[in-house]
Amino acid sequence: MGKVVWNHITARVPGEDGLLINRLGYRWDEITASNLMKIDAQGRPVDGDPDELNFSGYVIHGAVHEARPDILCSMHTHTRGGQVVGALKCGLLPLCQEAMLFYEDIAYHAYEGIADDVNEQERLAANLGNCNQMILRNHGLLTVGATVGEAYWRMFQLEWACALQADVLATGQEFEIPSPEICRKARLQYIEEKAGYHEWPALRRELDQTDPAYAT
User: Fold this and answer.
1) How far apart are CA 150 and CA 69, in angstroms?
2) pLDDT tens digits for 201-214?
3) Mean pLDDT of all residues in the chain?
4) Sequence-separated (6 or more) residues with CB below 8 Å from residue 178
5) CA distances from 73 to 12, 21, 76, 164 (A)
6) Rounded to an integer, what distance in angstroms lies between the CA atom of residue 122 and that of residue 62?
7) Which among 78, 47, 39, 70 has a CA at the least distance from the CA of 147?
8) CA angle 59, 55, 36 (to 5 degrees)
9) Residue 167, H or E segment
10) How far apart are CA 195 and CA 187, in angstroms?
């Protein structure tokens, strides 16, 4: 779920004022516990080669973590479905069950160019507000969570909803949108349990079986 080496995920360092971030130049499948980079609150590498810091990752995630002390993890992707919906004025539509998780709870941030300007951080944080997901217009998707599993599963569901929306609109046929009451009901049903609560352990078990090197 990404664009080779140009997406990023961060997590707070327990008990410290810093973040772990994937190093620039690594694919998702190459990232392990030992090659994550630690950066401080100002985006300066605490360990590792400064040339391996994705500064755009710090601009986006640093803003989010600073503004949202309630979150542990933040994830950003350039998926095809997410970029399709990010380019649509209508934004995300409640066309499928997966999209209901985000009904009336999704933020939007206008495109300002490649995210290498720290001045954008204030607007990123303000636009996200109390939402747990944001569509970056003409750019990609952002999700946050109180756990890594929550941030990941929100991203999985959001990309699924965006890709399905692109497919539905591509048919050119009329489409059905449930009533606001039904959309709100479905969202409440979704959030009765934390996103990723069941899914993340299942995915971890799969990874333990197929490529356990991630933990080293």
Assistant:
1) 15
2) 999 999 999 999 99
3) 95
4) 94, 186
5) 7, 10, 10, 26
6) 10
7) 70
8) 105
9) helix 148-170
10) 11
Residue 161: name the closest of 83, 90, 75, 99 by CA: 99
Length of the chain: 216
- Nearest residue to 134 (alpha-carbon basis) of 108, 165, 104, 99: 108
Tokens encoding 191: 């959030």
Going by C-beta distance under 8 Å and a sequence separation of 6 or more, which residues neighbour residue 53?
Answer: 21, 23, 24, 37, 39, 43, 45
Cβ-based burial of 214 (10 A; exposed 0-12, middle 13-18, buried ≥19): middle
pLDDT at 15: 85
How many helices (H) and strands (E) would you count in the chain?
A: 7, 7
CA angle 35, 51, 27 (to 5 degrees): 45
- Cβ-based neighbour number of residue 212 at 10 Å: 9
pTM (2 decimals)? 0.94
Question: What does the block give as tokens for 76?
Answer: 């950003």
The amino acid present at 201, given as its one-letter code, is P
Rounded to an integer, what distance in angstroms lies between the CA atom of residue 12 and that of residue 15? Answer: 9
